[in-house]
């Protein structure tokens, strides 16, 4: 994979919070990227430039930080945005998918009319750890008949195996930076 032009710049502004949300977890906090207007623009532009010619129909973002990035990228690409939410947060008819996290399990849902069969979808989240969240979202979109063109995230934590698992499941994956060995 070719490293994105601003990968080091973006990575250097991601805050590491040790032992959150539980002991032993090194949480990679992207909020400094969102708080600085220049960093936020570089971050969004990195994704927009990658996907501007991808002939997408919609951008899907995973609750909650995937909403921030996904909605802005969708807007910049002149596409609609589909939220994939934690269980019980969507008001209309949904389909659900349960998955494992690095520190527990969870369920995500999508509205049954969020996309149409054949829609080409970009799936965005902030980070790939064990891969469970992105794969659950991918499965939901697939069940609705959509084609997920690529999964995308700011951060990859390759030592947790998620990026390999995602690629092994046949979903191409793009990440801006990784924290291998950090």
Automatic annotation (TrEMBL):
UniProt xrefs under Gene3D superfamilies: 3.40.50.2020
EC numbers on record: 2.4.2.7
GO cellular component: a single term: cytoplasm
Keyword flag GTP-binding: no
Subunit structure: Homodimer.
Major location (coarse): cytoplasm
Function: Catalyzes a salvage reaction resulting in the formation of AMP, that is energically less costly than de novo synthesis.
GO biological process, one term: adenine salvage
Protein keywords: Cytoplasm, Glycosyltransferase, Purine salvage, Transferase
Annotated metabolic or biological route of this protein: Purine metabolism; AMP biosynthesis via salvage pathway; AMP from adenine: step 1/1
UniProt keyword annotation of NADP present: no
Family membership: Belongs to the purine/pyrimidine phosphoribosyltransferase family.
Catalytically driven reaction(s): AMP + diphosphate = 5-phospho-alpha-D-ribose 1-diphosphate + adenine
Provenance organism: Silvimonas terrae
SUPFAM superfamilies: PRTase-like (SSF53271)
Record-annotated Phosphoribosyltransferase domain positions: 49-159
Residues of the signal peptide: none
Superkingdom in the source lineage: Bacteria
Localisation per UniProt entry: Cytoplasm
InterPro entries documented for this protein: Ade_phspho_trans (IPR005764), Adenine_PRTase (IPR050120), PRTase-like (IPR029057), PRTase_dom (IPR000836)
This protein's name: Adenine phosphoribosyltransferase
Molecular function as annotated in GO: adenine phosphoribosyltransferase activity
């Amino acid at each position: 994979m070719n490293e994105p032009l601003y990968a080091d710049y973006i990575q250097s502004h991601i805050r590491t919070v040790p032992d959150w949300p539980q002991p032993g977890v090194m949480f990679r906090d992207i909020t400094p990227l969102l708080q600085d207007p220049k960093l936020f623009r570089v971050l969004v532009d990195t994704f927009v430039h990658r996907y501007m010619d991808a002939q997408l129909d919609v951008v899907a973002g995973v609750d909650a930080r995937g909403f921030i990035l996904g909605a802005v990228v969708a807007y910049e690409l002149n596409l609609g945005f589909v939220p994939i939410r934690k269980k019980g947060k969507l008001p209309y008819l949904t389909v659900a998918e349960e998955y494992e996290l690095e520190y527990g399990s969870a369920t995500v849902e999508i509205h049954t009319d969020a996309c149409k069969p054949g829609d080409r979808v970009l799936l965005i989240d902030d980070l790939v750890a064990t891969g469970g969240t992105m794969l659950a979202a991918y499965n939901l979109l697939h069940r609705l008949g959509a084609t997920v063109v690529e999964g995308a995230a700011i951060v990859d934590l390759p030592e947790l195996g998620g990026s390999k698992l995602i690629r092994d499941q046949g979903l191409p994956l793009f990440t801006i930076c990784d924290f291998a060995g950090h």
